[in-house]
């Protein structure tokens, strides 16, 4: 754990859609600068939870604070202090790289001078100066994903939420993407990442594992492997899923 400052506090979170419970009694804390993995199979309730935490959806019940703001009463303040990257990609394909940076910089309240400075820095860091004036739609998926993440933290938010950020990209690009996550964490940005790739759990400081809308385990990857006598996180997840099925 990088810092004892609590930036996300969740107590007894429920989210229901009619008779279906997508999130069942979730309780956890996340700390400043931490890389917190929110893992589980597709349909486990990860995306529903991340939308609530990022102010895009209301919970049915529960106490939730993000970056010090109440998700019921202070959603607009919350949104200004976080970054968000969705699994369906979040940049505009018909705008150029720089136009996207300028657009989001304006939304985040940055001045023209700040936007220009941050754009130059971002493109240099990613070695993408040569595509500054290319439309996003013309770029490879891996480049798009790295740009989307960098734009999501353009305003140096307290927390960035990443919903399945590496879906569909090759292993080398996934590793490069995680290098960007590490760098953000070193700067004090808390990274809350959902994924169904169990190997990515190894890159997180702590992980929670969702099964059927519930958090079935939460700890560091090394402690979870010890607890379940497993050689890797895939084995941990399979045992949790199997236990859950038996209980039903």
From TrEMBL:
PROSITE patterns: ABC_TRANSPORTER_2. InterPro entries: AAA+_ATPase, ABC_transporter-like_ATP-bd, P-loop_NTPase. GO terms for molecular function: ATP binding; ATP hydrolysis activity. Keywords: ATP-binding, Nucleotide-binding. Residues 8-237 form the ABC transporter domain. This is ABC transporter ATP-binding protein. It comes from Ancylomarina longa. The lineage of its organism: Bacteria, Pseudomonadati, Bacteroidota, Bacteroidia, Marinilabiliales.
